[in-house]
Amino acid sequence: MTDTRAALAAFSALSQETRLEAFRLLVKAEPEGLPAGEIARRLDVPQNTMSAHLSTLTASGLVLSRREGRSIIYRADLTAMRGLTAFLLEDCCRLDRETSAPALACLAAAGCETDKNGAC
To answer: How far is the CA of 91 from the CAs of 6, 23, 66, in angstroms?
Structure first.
């Protein structure tokens, strides 16, 4: 995610407490994902409210959905999450490899490719 507008959309979506908690829950539920009703139940949020939050997260590019019968299953888009993290660290990585090493190691463990200079 190198586009500033996409990063702003993602941060905007995550800047609300219920959406942030829903995204964190979906990250933990990878790779299976969770039905919308289960997310609402676990977060103690009305289903129609949760639906609006999930729509916002989906529009931001951080969440994917698929239909299974009558349910919609939501999943965190880990590629988008890694891209957002790499976007934040892009300048940091180029300035000081030692300072950014822990973050780069975490991104690498999550599947983020880094170049020979450590840039994401």
So the answer is: 17, 26, 35
Query: Tokens 């090493």 — which residue?
Result: 101
* H helices present in the chain, as ranges: 4-14, 17-28, 36-43, 47-60, 78-95, 97-109
Q: In this predicted model, what pLDDT tens digit does every residue of 39-85 receive, in sequence order?
A: 999 999 999 999 999 999 999 999 999 999 999 999 999 999 988 88
Q: How many whole angstroms from its chain centre is CA 3?
A: 15
Angle between helices 47-60 and 36-43 (to 10 degrees): 110
The H or E element containing residue 74 is strand 71-76
Kindly tell me the burial class for residue 84, based on how many C-beta atoms sit within 10 Å of its own C-beta (0-12, 13-18, 19 or more): buried
Question: Backbone phi, then psi, for 118, in 5-degree steps?
Answer: 90, 0
